[in-house]
Write a sequence for this structure.
């Protein structure tokens, strides 16, 4: 029955069943076979989402949606564009930096690619950039929100592994900056010999005015992270503070767009995304708990530690597993299915938990732009009504940069060392 439960998961996925339902049914088969009552299935689903830490997810999503709908994201983009837009490759570099900052404000990749893409793509097209390249840099850069704190995937990882999410946020700062720099270098290199129109340099006055206009948005990451690390509020409370802060400064500085219609649209979007995440989370928890009840994590740990290979080869196998799963699954179920199984292995191999968390998040960034299943790819394709194959082709050079960043972070664990 355990084998049947695992096989049924892949069969149901191939038949097109929603992933949460496939995991729920497969996990229920295993749980009932073990002898646990049906109530265990229901209670496990409720326990999975009944978490104070996970409450930060809808708040950060809501804050990001408010910034997009109410106009603060536009202020941020205009400042970065005035700062970098006149350089060779300046517009794609603007997209990368804007995605990094906006990701730090919202923690949502989907919100980031839509918000930045809607502003950047018209600029790049008018300047002579190829649409495929423009879509590619936006799709991949949008994943920066999962490494630059606050990150929704870090919140989920901390909830699964019972880690301090504030330490994960701190550990993601240097890796986030590293990946941002590497993506900027890739964007500039791809544009260096192009014939794109260079925008005129913004005057000092225009640059200063755009900075002042963007300052309310730029203050928010410092407010959120500073409040967490100074002990003023918890990560969940910080997410709620972010929502309140965005509402207040939007009402002050973007009062023309501060309408009930936009507020409702932002809230509906956040509720929809949160519902999807939590339904997947519930189904994935059932499946993961079923595997745990069946002693699969323990058996997998014993198998991996008994292999006649070094701990680095074993870790390479785990990272490859993440990337392969990323071609078939969304990052949320990947985290909830695999972490309970591989986390004991990682500890047995001697890896530091925070370092492994950063490597996992880097793999999840790759998963978001890995065909055929890639949420960032589908978000851009659907929003701009372009073939997903076009977004995929444009993403390939930047996807290679993410793989390079993963290797660097793996080989130099000190980059994610929160103790210094």
């Amino acid at each position: 029955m355990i084998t049947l439960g695992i096989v049924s998961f892949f069969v149901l996925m191939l038949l097109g069943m929603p992933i949460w339902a496939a995991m729920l049914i497969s996990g229920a088969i295993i749980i009932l076979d073990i002898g646990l009552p049906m109530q265990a299935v229901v209670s496990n689903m409720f326990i999975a989402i009944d978490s104070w830490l996970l409450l930060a997810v809808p708040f950060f999503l809501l804050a990001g949606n408010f910034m997009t709908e109410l106009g603060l994201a536009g202020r941020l983009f205009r400042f970065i564009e005035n700062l970098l837009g006149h350089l060779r490759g300046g517009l794609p570099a603007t997209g990368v930096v804007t995605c990094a900052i906006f990701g730090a404000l919202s923690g949502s990749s989907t919100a980031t690619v839509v918000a930045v893409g809607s502003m950047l793509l018209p600029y790049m097209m008018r300047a002579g950039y190829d649409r495929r390249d423009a879509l590619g840099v936006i799709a991949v850069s949008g994943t920066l929100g999962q490494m630059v704190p606050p990150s929704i995937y870090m919140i989920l990882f901390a909830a699964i592994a019972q880690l301090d999410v504030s330490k994960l946020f701190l550990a993601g700062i240097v890796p986030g900056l590293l990946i941002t720099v590497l993506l900027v270098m890739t964007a500039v290199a791809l544009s260096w010999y192009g014939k794109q129109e260079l925008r005129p340099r913004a005057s000092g006055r225009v640059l200063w005015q755009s900075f002042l206009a963007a300052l309310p948005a730029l203050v928010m990451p410092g407010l959120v992270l500073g409040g967490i690390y100074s002990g003023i509020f918890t990560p969940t409370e910080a997410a709620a503070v972010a929502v309140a802060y965005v509402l207040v400064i939007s009402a002050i500085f973007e009062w023309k767009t501060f309408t009930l219609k936009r507020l409702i649209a932002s809230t509906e979007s956040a509720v929809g995304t949160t519902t999807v995440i939590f339904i997947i989370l519930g189904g994935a928890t059932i499946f993961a708990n079923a595997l745990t009840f069946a002693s699969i994590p323990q058996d997998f740990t014993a198998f991996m530690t008994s292999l006649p290979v070094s701990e680095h080869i074993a870790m390479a196998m785990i990272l490859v597993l993440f990337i392969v799963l990323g071609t078939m699954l969304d990052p949320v179920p990947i985290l909830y299915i695999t972490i309970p199984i591989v986390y004991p292995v990682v500890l047995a191999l001697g890896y530091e938990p925070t370092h492994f968390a950063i490597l996992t998040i880097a793999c999840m960034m790759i998963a978001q732009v890995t065909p055929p299943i890639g949420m960032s790819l589908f978000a851009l394709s659907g929003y701009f009504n372009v073939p997903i194959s076009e977004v995929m082709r444009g993403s390939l050079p930047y996807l290679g940069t993410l793989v390079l960043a993963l290797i660097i972070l793996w080989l130099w664990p000190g980059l994610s060392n929160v103790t210094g």
Summary: The chain has one domain: 37-416.
